[in-house]
Structures are given as C-alpha cells and as structure tokens.
C-alpha cells in the first residue's frame, strides 16, 4: 500500500478528505492527519509516506515553507496542494517549488482522484526503476550489500523471502526464428516483460521480472510451482517464441540473489547435455549427480578405449558416436568436464600416425574455445564426427571422389530447389554422411550448402521477376520459401535491391 498523510487546519476538512474517496481501493493507506505544518513535518519524518495532501495555509509552518523543507529531506514525496480561490498564486508558487499539483476548494472528488492516480503511477515507476537498479547491484555482489538491503524498505522495494530466480532465455529453433528475433528484439522484449508481469499480477504471485541483458530476462518469484512451464507456454502462445528457463534453489533472502542467479545460469549450461529440455532446475541436476565436474577414472578409461577404436577405423565403421553419447549421458557430468574430455580426445586423434600421411595444411587446428562454441552435445558430437571423417577421407585420398559428390549434390539442389530440401535428403541421394558432406561441400565450393541453395533460389526468383507479373508471395512460394518476408530479406541481401526495385530496373536484361 502507498502511504499518505493529509494536513489541514480545519477538522471538518480533514474528516472530509479522509472519506471523500475509497483510498483502499486506490491502494492507499492514510497513516496520519495533521492540523498544522509542524505536525505534518513530524508525521512525514516518522511514517515516511509517499504522498502528502495539504492545505496551502497552515499554522506554525506554512505550505510553501513546508514544501521547500521537504524538497530537501524527502525529494521523492509527492505533494498535492489544497488552496482557496483567492490563494491561487500561492498554489502556483508551490508547484514551482516541487508540488505535484494543486486543487482549488471546494474539492472536486473526480479531479482529486485523477491527481492521486497520476501520483500513484509516478511512484510505481520510480519504485520499479529503483527496484531494478537494486537487484542489479545485488546480482553483482557475492554476499549482498547490507546497506542496500536496509534501504530497500525505506524505498518501498519488496524484500523477497523463500523465492527462486528464473532466468528466461530466448531459444530460437531455426535460422528463420533467429532472424525474426533479431529484427523484432525491442518489441519482443517489451512484450515478454508485459506478458509475464501481467500474469504475475493477475495470479497475485509475489514476484518481479526485468530484462537483465539482451534476450535474457530475470524473474524473482516466491510462489514458483509450475511457474517456468507456464512462462514457456504463455510466450509460445502469445509471441511464438521459444525460451529455455534455468531455475535456482529456494533462497530465504535477497542477500542470496547473487548465488541464486549463478545457480540458474549454471542450469542453462546443462542445455548442452539436455537439448530437448526447456526447464532446467538446479535441485534436479544436483540430485542426478551433475554437479561433479571431475570425471571418474572409469569414464576416462572408457573414452580412451573408444578413441583407440576410432583410430583403428577412421572412416567411421565403428559405432563410436552412440557409444560415446551413452557414456556421457550415463555419467551426466558438468558440461565443462565434457568439453575437456572431448578436447583431449580430438587432440589425441590428430596426433596419431595416420594424420602424418596427409597434407597438414588441410587439417584445421582444434581449440578448447572452438569446442565451447557448440552449445549442445549433439552439435559437438557432429563436429567430432565431421573432424574424424575429414581426417579419414583425406587419409584415403578421397579428394577426386569429393568433387564428384559435390557435383551430384548441386544437380540435386538445382532439380529440387523449390521444395523443402533437407541435408538428410541430399545425403541420401548421394549416399554420404551429412557431417562429412557439409565439410566437403564447404571445402569444394567455399560456401555452405544452404548459402548455395539460397543463391539458386534467388537466381530463379530474378527470372520470374522480369518474365512474369507474379506477386512477391507467389514467387516466394514457387522457389520454396514459405515466408514472403524472409524471401524479400534474402533477395535484398544477395542482390542489393528489393524485388520490386529489381523488376523495375531498366538496366536489367529482359530476354525474350
């Protein structure tokens, strides 16, 4: 509740002000009534209200003098002045010194309520800004700052107890989703905040949400059962965006906010192992044994043995990928440990004798940071598979065969550019694994397969633009794009022109 003090030297006016409006309905509690300026000042010092409603003419300390004094001692206090008709010039002076507004007696209750609501809106905005600034400071301080915690109550900032921290991160599942997210990020962030804050308010859940950094929102919530899943469903239904949520353990005080944030952040790193999970809770991860970042000797031995199997058959006939996946999921260790283990595995593969028989210039160096750029175990295993196949095929001098495979892939893309082509369908057509094919295609053409597909599609679009009157969405559909906006973006990116500009360009050769 917002606290308010009312002051007037007429008792009847004080009683009238106390009952003229349903203050409780507005979220206001009257914490004191004063009949002179001195009493008003004492009440403000003792109760620390957010609003003062006072007459301009007061005994002991006049209204103007009171405003000047309060501007120094209570700069955030909203002061509304009541004045008689003949005192209008004093009311104007009061506004110059910082009063939030004034009313001329007799009081119009509608006008009074409107002014009060403006004050309430301003107070809530100030508290929200101070609240966010306070939480940001606490998030960057390991043991909390006692002075900040102490000032929170004075500023009207809620001190949460038995809460959890939820980190909500945007999680686009396709390149098109990522592109749309980047284009609309300011709008999406604003909507995410509005949707979740509205849900918290409608459900009367003690909680607060703010954007901490780009594509990441932090929510502090006391009643948290099912909260993460509800957020995921709401954002998917209303914004069509996918998110992943990291959830901390229960904390008893905001002094633990730093710790809670780091727990939730740590949870999100486990998306590396659990790529299909949208909610990752710290308690569950710790109970499953994931908190141990050191690999047991048994795991190390298993992976070393598997490395020897790969070395014996570098072209991939051994079922090493499924074996390695099973080992890593069963041990369920911290992602940093997995990165270290696979880094060692890859280095060992590149040091073996069969690497010495091929051209070293064609072997890309491996780095720990490069491995950590892969954000899921599946992606990292695909990279590992690609590296193994690359080395194996180079060892067997497959370069000529590679040219033939890329040529066949290009023919297939030319014939099916207007359909929903997948990497699997291309590789099935030319009988090759998708990871080796991706590496081979990039090596032979200098671009990835999707860049080549885009070029093919845009070339056909250019022909349709100059030879037909088809609309943009019809052309997009004919060349295999479901989203006309995405087609326009890709066309602009490759040609430097929008489709209609290209169609109307007099320098374009029309043909017959």
At CATH level 3, the topology of the largest domain is: Alpha-Beta Plaits
Major β-sheet strand ordering: 2-1-3-4-5
- Residue-averaged pLDDT: 81
Strand content: 5-15%
CATH superfamily of the largest domain: Reverse transcriptase/Diguanylate cyclase domain
Q: What Rg, in angstroms, do the CA atoms define? A: 33 Å
Question: Which residue ranges are poorly predicted, with pLDDT under 50 across at least 5 consecutive positions?
Answer: 289-295, 353-363
How many strands? 10
Number of domains: 4
Q: At the first level of CATH, what is the class of the largest domain?
A: Alpha Beta
Oligomer: single chain
Count helical runs: 23
Q: Mind summarizing the main beta sheet?
A: 5 strands, parallel
Quickly give the CATH architecture of the largest domain: 2-Layer Sandwich
**What is the structural class?**
alpha/beta
Percent helix among the residues?
55-70%
Shape: elongated
What is the CA–CA distance across the termini?
77 Å
């Amino acid at each position: 509740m917002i606290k308010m003090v009312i002051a007037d030297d007429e008792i009847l006016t004080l009683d009238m002000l106390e009952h003229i409006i349903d203050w409780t309905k507005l979220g206001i509690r009257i914490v004191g009534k004063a009949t002179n300026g001195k009493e008003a000042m004492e009440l403000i010092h003792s109760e620390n209200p957010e609003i003062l409603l006072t007459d301009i003419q007061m005994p002991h300390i006049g209204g103007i003098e009171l405003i000047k004094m309060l501007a120094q001692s209570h700069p955030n206090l909203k002061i509304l002045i009541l004045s008689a008709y003949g005192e209008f010039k004093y009311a104007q002076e009061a506004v110059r010194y910082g009063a939030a507004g004034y009313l001329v007696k007799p009081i119009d209750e509608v006008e009074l309520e409107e002014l009060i609501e403006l004050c309430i809106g301003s107070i809530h905005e100030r508290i929200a800004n101070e609240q966010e600034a306070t939480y940001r400071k606490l998030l960057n301080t390991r043991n909390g700052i006692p002075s900040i915690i102490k000032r929170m109550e004075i500023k009207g900032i809620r001190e949460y107890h038995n809460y959890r921290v939820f980190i909500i991160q945007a999680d686009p599942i396709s390149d098109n989703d990522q592109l749309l997210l980047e284009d609309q990020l300011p709008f999406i962030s604003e909507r995410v905040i509005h949707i979740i804050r509205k849900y918290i308010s409608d459900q009367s859940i003690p909680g607060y949400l703010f954007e901490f950094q780009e594509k990441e929102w932090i929510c502090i919530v006391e009643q948290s059962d099912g909260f993460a899943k509800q957020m995921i469903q709401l954002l998917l239904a209303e914004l069509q965006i996918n998110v992943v949520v990291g959830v901390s353990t229960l904390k008893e005080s905001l002094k633990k906010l730093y710790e809670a944030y780091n727990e939730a952040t740590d949870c999100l790193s486990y998306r590396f192992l659990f790529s299909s999970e949208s909610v990752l809770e710290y308690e569950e991860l710790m109970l499953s044994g994931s908190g141990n970042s050191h690999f047991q000797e048994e795991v190390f031995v298993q992976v070393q043995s598997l490395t020897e199997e790969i070395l014996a058959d570098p072209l991939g006939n051994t079922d090493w990928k499924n074996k390695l996946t099973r080992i890593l999921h069963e041990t369920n260790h911290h992602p940093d440990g997995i990165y270290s283990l696979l880094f060692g595995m890859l280095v060992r593969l590149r040091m073996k004798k069969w690497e010495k028989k091929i051209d070293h210039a064609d072997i890309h160096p491996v780095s720990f940071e490069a491995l950590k750029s892969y954000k899921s175990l599946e992606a990292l295993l695909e990279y590992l598979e690609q590296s193994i196949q690359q080395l194996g095929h180079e060892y067997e001098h497959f370069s000529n065969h590679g040219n033939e495979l890329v040529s066949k892939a290009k023919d297939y893309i030319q014939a099916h550019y207007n359909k929903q082509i997948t990497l699997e369908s291309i590789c099935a057509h030319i009988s090759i694994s998708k990871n080796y094919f991706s590496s081979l295609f990039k090596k032979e053409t200098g671009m990835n397969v999707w860049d080549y597909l885009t070029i093919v599609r845009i070339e056909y679009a250019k022909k349709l633009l100059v030879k037909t009157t088809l609309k943009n969405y019809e052309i997009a559909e004919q060349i295999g794009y479901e989203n006309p906006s995405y087609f326009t973006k890709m066309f602009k990116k490759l040609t430097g022109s929008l489709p209609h500009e290209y169609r109307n360009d007099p320098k374009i050769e029309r043909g017959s």
